Amino acid sequence: MSKIATITTVLLLTTLASPLLLAKANKLNFNKSQQSSQQKITGQLLYLNEKNGDVDLLIHDDNRFSYYPHIAQGGLVDKAQIIEIPENAQFFNQAKLAKQASEVIVYLTADAVMSYNIEDKTINKLIDVETLYKYQGIFEVNFGDFVQDFNQDGLSDFITYSLDTTHLYLQNAAGEFSHQSLAISPRIEKSGRGLSFTPQRFYHADFNNDDKKDIAFQIDDQLMVFAQTPTQLFDNSPVVINLNAHLENKNSAIKKQQGEKSAAVNLETIEDINGDGFVDIVTKESVREGMMSRINHLMIRYGFIENGVMSYNKQADGKATFDGEGMIKFKDVDGDGLKDYYTLSVEMGIGTMMSAMSGAIDMDLRFYKLGKNGEYVKKPVYENEVEIAISSGSDGEALTDVSDFNGDGINDLILKTDDKEFTIYSGAKGKRLFAKRGADYEIELPKSVRTEIKDFNNDGKADILFLYGKYYDEDEEKEVGENKLTLWLSAS
């Protein structure tokens, strides 16, 4: 054999033996259970008693819940219990009450908060409250964000709104509630039908660096912060924090000239992005380029303490850009203490519109890492295409999530591969966020399906709940499929 042939053979054998090329992703084990449902499974999900290492699953359907107890230990029961929702309920949520071991369902009515104990099937009025909704006669019950442990004592508190005031009801260890009024009125917007009142969104974070979480409301370009006191109450007068982010509401006096290409600025998130313990803000400035295209500029302002309160610079500390329309999420993907972001977006154009007519569109999934210098990388460190079904009856959700499936402390990526398969890519530290090769898992994934990724059994590994619903098939001109649940619990 010639010297050249020998070298070629050695190089070929070395290449074939490379562990990176030969390595196959380790397939994870799951314990699987499945049950059909007589009720719709498209509603809001509640997970009670998550901290106990077992979960009670509730699925909202019109004026009732389907109740599946202890799904992490016993799997899915053959037939769900039905819990009827009271006729006067306007919103529902879950809560931890004093002197009760298990969490309960809570209902907000026009003038009260009621609790329902699943174990003894009793309903009780907890407190009388002030609400906006006592003026509205017909109300379809839905999930409401009126429950929060504001003073961090392990017990649920409530927040409601009247026409000119925000109300706090703080629970103590005896199960009693103290009432505080905050001078925050709802947003009032004009429409063709008159005036609409919308509660101000609240943020629960430490805004003065005293290790106690405060309550803040964003009013235009300011935060109105009610600081938590040493007695676990909240100051009656707010501290005003300027965001310097050019945020305006719909009724702002600032008018934009017709035809001017100006950015629509939205508050994307308020949270600690760079892991320094201070609350940061991220705004998104969205500008149209031509008829279809849209460019999004993320402006990051890192919080710092000045005169005892959180402050933000007028000039953004960091910037990032991505194209298209869609969702954005912030998460520390690789466990380095810095929150990366990823987008699932699409560039609207003729090609996208043609694809939509066929019942599905391809969206771009892109991940961007945050560097130690506080800047996001300009080019995505990982990108892929995800197909989204948008045909009639489909909920348009994709099996796309980031969670730790193998328990190594690093988030992995789960992606739908086709209608009968999904793939899990193991997370990695360094430049590459995920392994190049993933492990494939077979399961029927029809159009009307959504997934919940959560560690139901508290073993440090993510589990998967598949919820299948009926949908209208335009080709067959009828409703097809069935309502069913499939639960995959991580196995050791």
Automatic annotation (TrEMBL):
Signal sequence residues: none
Keyword Lyase: no
Keywords, comma-separated and alphabetical: Signal
InterPro entries listed in its UniProt record: FG-GAP (IPR013517), Integrin_alpha_N (IPR028994)
Taxonomic superkingdom: Bacteria
Keyword Methyltransferase among record annotations: no
The name this protein goes by in its record: VCBS repeat-containing protein
